[in-house]
Design a protein that fits this description.
Chain lengths: 199, 645
């Protein structure tokens, strides 16, 4: 039997890029991001192949879409306000406030988007444009819903005291996903709402 | 020096065993997260699907053996060729390679498991259940019938009203989950779960191959999942993605499918080429010629592979400018492939050859790859492709590529690693018979198809008139197909014989250089009693190659290296240089992956049968299981790691 030559102190699990979970989340975000690239590609491709105007029913109204965009982006800042400093100062109240607030803003976004969809003069199956529009915004909305579920779980775990110990990698990873969902909205919003205004 | 067996029997070995062992019984079987059992399950399941797909092919070859036969109805023939393609492309070719990589990676990389063992189990269960899902409508004669690439409008509702293509569309989305989570696992495992010192320039080539394929899958699979979702929505909810009267575009399907499809083809071959690059040199008694070139061309092939998808669409009336670009890209991709071929030939040329069964399969692969590569190069030319596309020439090309580059290395790879997996050798004499039967059968079956195609026989047609004059060629192909099938049968007999009465293999029967051969055969559940320290590309050949004075520490034998027995744990390293920087706690047995896969099955069956409550039940299950899966568990912040020397 050999002798112990040396001892090293290593972190267990690790935080940020030292943990494997961070890389797992990076893979998830990569594959989801490329999904949106394909969605936008499909939307643009169908538009580019149209004989008539695109969208055929005229540019979509920005009346609800702009405030909704502001709400979603604001939610990202609110979440960052709560999660970012948590690593250094365990300010649990601020974290709970931020999580609850972000969940609220996410729910408002989904509700407003629901109203906007309902006010459209067309449905999913009307034509190629409506199909492309609803699948693009619909897949994004599904991601917002998943993001809200993640934040709810984080809130529950925070309240249960699961992050009182030295490990709270779940928080920045959940937040990363939420920021991703918000950044993707900017691409979706630009493609489906802004660009058609300039035609 | 302490031997392997003594390590296993020592108190330290028993401690590790108690930490790592899977629970006995049915629960343990369903809950195992051991990469070795998952790897073997992948291999067996994928081989089972190979046999199913093979039987479908044989039935088609009976139908095609002579002109105007009526063995199969046109509709049955459509279902058979569609399921043959779908099975081979999705349920055999990639899962088979995932099986190899799952089994081998942690052993080759000097780790104790994959980065996410439960995700690994999930990836297997979803693969199995999605495979069953794709076959669910087969018994009622409603299997997918639009070919493996399912072109619209042929597959849209008015022309294909059954549930056939719904099964295909939903089945591929379902299977995509398995592929994507498996790929993410490979990527993170490579980046983080290696032995200290296993830097990127020391990785076995199969690791490069699977890593490249996984990165590509991560970026390519969403394209086909989206296309399938659109197809299903078009069919069942009246959307207009592909349907012209509502402003849709049939070509959108082809773009999305082939943006996925071509990288996918490379994902099916790069890990298999990796098998050859790692195992062929062992039988040439020398390191691979041009390791760096082969590694770079592996990655380069994949990068170029994302820019050639339109060569599947040369005959769809796209602008000449676009055709020229994609034609040029398709020519360029021959360069990295040729680099690989020259490296293998140079390895054989300059080696001291041992004509064992695996060598025969690998050398056979080189030849078949050259033939398949040349016919691919021919079809990269737009003008020639217009003559050849949709003919049997393409059938010949794609089978040379896929059987040549996937099946032959896979069977050779099983001959090579079976001793490690089972501790027993396969029969060498029967192995040679297997090779020659398969090799001759394959060429007799597929080489004539080049001519059949040039004579004008279209693919995917259930029969042909005698006046075409291709009856004799088809008969030869049919005979060859059955000879090939006999070869596969001989292989299975050899496996059965080997498991029952194979000679004991020992740790390293081929005197191979890589880390997996340092453990016992089969390896203990924890792989390495201590974490190895890698000092070169060929840890077990260092005394012979004398590239430097440094020597690798091979985990088990003398209990050198890191101990890591304060729980089920392994070491995490920095992505490029493999410096240890974190202790990774590994999950124990878990039933959650299996349950998650079951929930997903409920969801997809609900969608297929339009049963809302079943879909909703599936979704709720998924949410609850994922919440349980991801629940944070308390553990210490840091740990003292002892290193023996």
């Amino acid at each position: 039997m050999n002798e112990i030559a040396r001892r090293e102190i290593l972190p267990v699990g690790g935080v940020d890029t030292v943990s494997t979970a961070w890389w797992g989340m990076a893979c998830l975000i990569a594959t989801e991001a490329i999904l949106f690239v394909y969605l936008i590609f499909s939307y643009v491709y169908l538009g580019s192949q149209q004989a008539g105007p695109w969208p055929p029913s005229g540019p979509p109204s920005l009346k609800l879409a702009i405030p909704n965009t502001v709400i979603l982006i604001a939610s990202s800042f609110l979440l960052g306000w709560g999660v970012l400093p948590f690593k250094r100062r365990h300010d649990k109240r601020r974290l709970v406030l931020a999580l609850a607030g972000t969940i609220g803003l996410g729910a408002i976004f989904i509700t407003i988007q629901g109203f906007e969809w309902a006010s459209k003069p067309f449905v999913f199956s009307t034509n190629a444009y409506t199909s492309a529009f609803f699948i693009l915004t619909g897949v994004h909305m599904a991601h917002v819903a998943v993001g809200v579920l993640i934040l709810i779980m984080l809130l529950i775990w925070t309240l249960m005291g699961r992050f009182d110990g030295p490990h709270h990698e779940h928080l920045p990873l959940g937040a990363l996903y939420w920021h991703f969902v918000d950044v993707v909205w900017l691409a979706v919003f630009t493609t489906a709402y802004l660009v058609p205004q300039f035609k | 020096m302490v031997t392997q067996a003594e390590t296993i029997d020592s108190p330290e070995g028993r401690k590790l065993l108690s930490l790592w062992e899977t629970a006995p019984g049915l629960y343990g079987w369903l809950a195992s997260v051991d990469h070795k059992s998952i790897g073997i399950r992948y291999l067996c399941t994928a081989f089972f699907f190979l046999i199913i797909g093979g039987i479908e092919a044989l039935v088609m070859r009976v139908q095609l053996a002579q002109p105007d036969l009526k063995v199969l109805s046109p509709d049955a023939y459509n279902q058979l060729f569609s399921m043959h393609g779908t099975t081979m492309m999705f349920l055999y070719a990639l899962p088979m390679l995932s099986g190899f990589s799952n089994y081998l990676w942690p052993l080759m990389l000097g780790s104790r498991d994959m980065a996410f063992p439960r995700l690994n189990a999930l990836s297997y269960w979803v693969f199995l259940l999605a495979g069953i899902f794709l076959y669910v409508s087969f018994p009622i004669g409603q299997a997918p019938n639009g070919g493996w690439f399912a072109y619209v409008p042929n597959t849209s509702l008015p022309y294909d009203p059954g549930i056939n293509m719904d099964v295909y569309a939903l089945g591929l989305i379902f299977l995509g989950v398995s592929t994507v989570v498996g790929s993410a696992n490979f990527i993170v495992t490579l980046l983080r779960c290696r032995a200290p010192g296993m830097s990127v320039n020391r990785l076995p080539i199969i690791v490069w191959g699977t890593f490249t394929a996984s990165a590509a899958n991560l970026l390519a699979v969403p394209a086909v999942s989206l296309a399938c979702a659109m197809l299903w929505l078009d069919r069942r909810y009246g959307t207009h993605f592909f349907e012209v009267s509502g402003g849709g575009q049939p070509l959108l399907w082809q773009h999305l499918f082939w943006i996925f499809g071509h990288p996918w083809v490379y994902a099916l071959v790069l890990p298999a080429m990796g098998i050859v690059s790692d195992a062929l040199p062992v039988f040439c008694r020398r390191p691979l010629v041009g390791y760096t070139l082969v590694a770079i061309s592996t990655v380069a092939t994949m990068i170029l592979g994302f820019g050639v998808w339109v060569h599947h669409m040369f005959a769809t009336g796209l602008p000449v400018m676009s055709l020229s670009f994609f034609s040029a890209a398709s020519f360029v991709i021959a360069v990295p492939s040729a680099i690989g071929v020259f490296c293998w030939i140079a390895t054989i040329w300059t080696g001291k050859l041992q004509f064992k069964t695996p060598f025969l399969f690998f050398a056979g692969f080189v030849m078949l790859f050259v033939i398949g590569g040349v016919s691919g190069f021919m079809t990269a030319s737009v003008a020639l492709d217009w003559q050849l596309t949709d003919s049997y020439f393409i059938v010949a090309h794609l089978h040379y590529v896929l059987l040549g580059i996937n099946v032959f290395p896979v069977v050779g790879g099983i001959y090579y690693w079976f001793p490690k997996m089972s501790g027993k050798m396969l029969d060498e004499r029967l192995g040679r018979w297997t090779f020659w039967t398969m090799f001759i059968g394959f060429n007799v079956a597929f080489f004539p198809m080049h001519v059949t195609g040039l004579m004008g026989m279209p693919r995917r047609v259930y029969t042909y008139p005698a006046e075409m004059g291709v009856g004799w060629l088809n008969l030869i192909s049919s005979i060859g197909a059955f000879v090939f099938a006999i070869g596969v049968l001989l292989f299975l007999i050899n496996i059965a014989k080997g498991l029952k009465s194979g000679a004991p293999a020992g740790n390293n029967p081929w005197d191979a250089p890589t880390l997996e051969w340092a453990t016992t055969s089969p390896p203990p559940v924890y792989n390495f009693a201590t974490i190895p320290q890698v000092a070169s590309r060929y840890p077990l050949w260092e005394d012979r190659l004398k590239e430097s004075d440094e020597r690798s520490i091979i985990g088990d034998l003398a209990r050198d290296g890191m101990v890591l027995d304060k729980g089920k744990e392994t070491i995490g390293v920095t992505p490029l240089d493999a410096e240890p920087n974190v202790v990774l706690k590994m999950p124990g047995d878990s039933i959650l992956p299996f349950l998650l896969a079951l929930g997903m099955t409920a969801l997809f069956f609900g969608l297929l049968a339009h049963v809302i409550w079943l879909t909703a039940l599936g979704v709720v299950c998924e949410i609850v299981i994922l919440a349980l899966w991801l629940t944070p568990k308390p553990h210490v912040a840091e740990e003292e790691v002892e290193v023996y020397e």
